[in-house]
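INTERNAL AUDIT FORM
Audit reference: QA-55
Scope: verify that the stored structure record matches its stored sequence.
Auditor: D.O.
Record contents follow.
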Amino acid sequence: MDSNSSRGKRTSLQPQRAAGRQRVEELLEAASDLMAERGYEATTMAEIAARAGAKIGSLYRFFPNKEAVADALVQRHIAILEDEYEALAKRAATLSPDALADVLIELLVTLHPRVKSLSALMEARTDKTEIRDRARGHAIAGIAAALRVCAPGLDEALARDIAAVVLNTMKVLRSMLAKDAPTTPGGPDELRRMHRLYLTDRLQPFRRTSDGITDAEP
């Protein structure tokens, strides 16, 4: 039985001590790096341990097999998304629409390295549709919540529609920056400008004025 084979249905060990929790974080970070670089299938348990500077026995102590590592990574990535979008909603109350547009782009830049293996995990797993739907659902709900904080008169359905457009714009920009999509040297900046103009156009009518009435209200 090789290092990637399933070893029963044993669950991952949840360490109680700080040193154990730190070791798990190091192992998961190493696994995330490798899976982002090489893909889920090509990554082995031995490579994860080596990248983390740990003994293979230490890895198996916390994770019985590679599938358990993947499960932990998915949960970790979803938790990161939830935390970041919750923080975004709190910031949105102090932001103008164009400033919020820039913060969303900044969020894209900071989030991607932290959840870099999510795409590889989704492609390799049998439940990839469920994982993708969960990740997209968290992203759309999180962006929509921030939009409604910035523009309180915005109804939930429209906020989710705008959030879907914003999410796709962010993905295109990421692809352009990574040279995975056709672009030019000034293309990303033009997309950022379009992103700001779009959000300002859609949110400004629903912003609260000094008397508490939204611009969209009669």
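Auditor finding: record pair retrieved intact. The two ends are 71 Å apart (CA to CA).
Action required: none
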